[in-house]
Design goal:
globular, 2,3-Dihydroxybiphenyl 1,2-Dioxygenase, domain 1, four-stranded mixed β-sheet, 122 residues, alpha/beta
Length: 122
Amino acid sequence: MVTARMLNHVNLNVSDIHRSARFYQEALGLEIGFWEGKTMVFLHSPGAQDTITLCQAASGDPIGGSGVSHFGFSIGAGNLDEAVDQIRRAGGRLLSRGRHGGRYPYAYFSDPDGYVIELGNV
């Protein structure tokens, strides 16, 4: 049996690829790995092997939720307030905050196209 080793990437259709790339850079500090033509960009967390790809949606293509509940990033202990402020300045909208299991701080926010992103101190 072949088993998955890790999540390789998440691909998101976006309405404005340049706006979305800028948002993920400013909101989460993601770095651009490379562009695939003018319609797809690969971003990753500094020093990590995660990848998020943004794809310019064609007219009529779904964007936002469309079945994706949310995806999450770990940001390290003690940085959640600063991260929430940074995301707001970048154009994100805070949806909710709390603690999973009463212990693990989290914040949910939406990106410019309505994708829901969770930040946690795990």
